[in-house]
Amino acid sequence: MxxxxxxxxxxxxCSLPVVGRSVNANAHPARCVCARETIIPGVRWNSTRLDxxxxxxxxxxxxxxxxxxxxxxxxxLPPSIRYGTPIPHIxxxxxxxxxxxxxxxxxxxxxxxxxxxxxxxxxxxxxGHGGPQAADFCHKxxxxxxxxxLEVETDLQAVLSRAFLQVDAALAAELQIYGNASxxxxxxxxxxxxxxxxxxxxxxxxxxxxxxxxxxxxxRKLTDDHTPERKDEKHRIRQxxxxxxxxxxxxxNVNGRLAMTRSIGDFDLKKNGVIAEPETTRTLLxxxxxxxxxxxxxxxxxxxTNQEICDIINQCHDPTEAxxxxxxxxxxxx
Length: 334
Description:
By secondary structure, the chain is an alpha+beta fold. It has seven helices and 18 strands.
C-alpha cells in the first residue's frame, strides 16, 4: 500500500487575504483579454474586467470560488464566449505535489503536471507495485501518447481510453525484451485528469488512486476504485477464469495476489480479467463553486475520508502546503 503521494490543482485563486491586483494584458496575450465587443447573455464586460451584475463593480474569483469585488483575475475569452460563462485562467503555478516514502523501502509513486496544448492541461498520478518499472514507464510515456491521441481525437474520454491501452501494450512489449518472468508482475495505478479550456475536466483511472473535486466545500468523487469488492469487477475476473481470495487482514485480491482489478502492467493476470481500460468521467466545472482538484494514492485514502482530505486542504494557504500537510499527516498517523 502506498502512503506517499498527493497532487492537487487549485482551480481558482489561492490566497487567504484577498488583495487587489491589476491584470497584466501582456502576461497572457492570446488567452486572457477582455473586450467591450464580447457578449455573453446577462454579462457585461468593460475593457479590463468583468461586470456580472451591471453595477460597475469588478467581479472576480477568490480561493473558494466566491465572486469577489476586490481583485481581478484574467479571463479566458474564447472559451468564455463558447460556453456562455466567464472562465478564469488556471495556472500550473497553482499546483502542489508531495510524495513521502512512508514505510516502504522504495518510493514507487510518480506524478506529472504539464500543459499539453494551448488549451489542455495534464495532471497524472501513478502508484506502482511489484517494482517501479510500470510507474516509471507511465511517467515517461503517458504524456506523449495523450499528445498523439489529441492530434486525431477531440473526445477527451476517448483520448484517455486509447492512451491507457497504448501505454499498456507498449509496456508489455518493452518488458518482454528482458525475458524476465518476474517483470510480468509489475504494475501501476494510473489516474489522469485533462482540463480543456479551463472548464471541461475529464478524468480516467485504473486501480485505486483517486481524483476528487471540491464543490461548495464538499468532496465529489470523480473516480471509483477498481477492487475485487465491486460486483461488476469481480464478475469480470471470474468470467475470465480468475478468482478472488481474501488475505489475513480481510483484503480481497485477484488470484490471491493483486488488490486491484484494473491496472497498467500485471501482465500475468491479464488472461484472468485484469484490464488496462480506464473508467472515465466528464465534468463541466462550476467556477463559482469548485475550489480544487486533488489526486491521491491508496495510502492516503486508507487513512482519510474524501471529505477529510477536502477539509484539510481548505484550511491551507496554498497548494504546496496542502499537499505536504496531507502527506505528512498520513505518514504520522500510519
